[in-house]
Write a structure and sequence with these properties.
It contains 12 helices and 10 strands. The chain is of the alpha/beta class and about 270 residues long. The relative contact order is 0.14.
Length: about 270
């Protein structure tokens, strides 16, 4: 993919700090197929660029990332669900793999809603700095689905297994103050100061010996998070089952029709 032709995000690099900004504000930065492909391509390119020492990931206001573009990716009819099922690969989500394989520190500057895969995206970063307008929610259960690697491996380490279970099982949305209280965030800032805080941290990291920082990140991953590819394969196989359920179709349909869902366990 030619990174000069990005349509769903922007990429800049200055003084060894890369800034990736998701730019679909009309969809609250929800990810469609193109956005997922571009996210993977951007992080693969950043991993290959020796000039990059730290990465800031953010969104165009008013959101960080509101997860999947439901209208495009998860429409409620059976034929669309079968099409999505055929697209499931027996491996980790490619965009998630590109982010987790990246050995440069990643700072998620969460400027608004980070829900569904958007929350997983923030969880895959090394740091989360949020504005006072940020909100977080693992909404997968509301669509009859399971979280991706971020929610299932990173969230329990950050907030503990009991709190992670509550967020995953209920799909509750929490604000930045609560996220800070439970250990999800490094800090939360006034909205206008968010990127300044992210750049300050990025600059401290980028000024250190880059090879040592990269090995430190790999060491922390090995000691703390384990093999995310195995979990990614399990998620993909599980989604292959759940995409066929009536509850999944009802969860999507109720969201699109703005009504309460009625789940039947089928």
């Amino acid at each position: 993919m030619n990174l000069s032709e990005l349509t769903t995000m922007t990429l800049s690099l200055e003084d060894h700090v890369a800034v990736v900004t998701i730019c679909r504000p009309e969809a609250r930065n929800a990810l469609n197929r193109q956005a997922y492909a571009e996210l993977e391509a951007v992080f693969r390119a950043l991993q290959a660029d020796e000039q990059v020492r730290c990465i800031i990931l953010t969104g165009t206001d008013p959101a960080f990332c509101s997860g999947d573009d439901v209208k495009e990716l998860m429409t409620g009819d059976a034929s669309a669900s079968h099409a999505r099922l055929r697209a499931v690969r027996p491996s980790i989500t490619p965009a998630a793999a590109a982010i987790l394989d990246c050995d440069r520190p990643i700072i998620a500057a969460v400027n608004g809603a980070a829900v569904g895969w958007g929350m997983d995206l923030a969880l895959m970063a090394d740091f989360r700095i949020a504005s006072d307008k940020a909100k977080f929610g693992e909404l997968f259960v509301k669509r009859g689905l399971v979280s991706d690697v971020g929610g299932l491996t990173r969230l329990p380490h950050l907030v503990g297994p009991q709190k992670a279970a509550e967020l995953l099982y209920t799909g509750d949305v929490i604000d930045a103050q609560e996220a800070m209280k439970i250990g999800l965030l490094l800090s939360y800032e006034p909205h206008d100061g968010l990127l300044t805080a992210a750049h300050t941290l990025a600059r401290k990291i980028a000024d250190n010996p880059p090879l040592a920082v990269r090995y430190l990140k790999e060491g922390l991953r090995r000691s703390f998070y384990g093999d995310y590819h195995d979990m990614g394969s399990w998620v993909s196989q599980t989604l292959g089952v759940l995409f066929q359920t009536e509850d999944h179709r009802e969860g999507v349909a109720s969201f699109l029709e703005k009504r309460p869902a009625e789940f039947k366990g089928q």
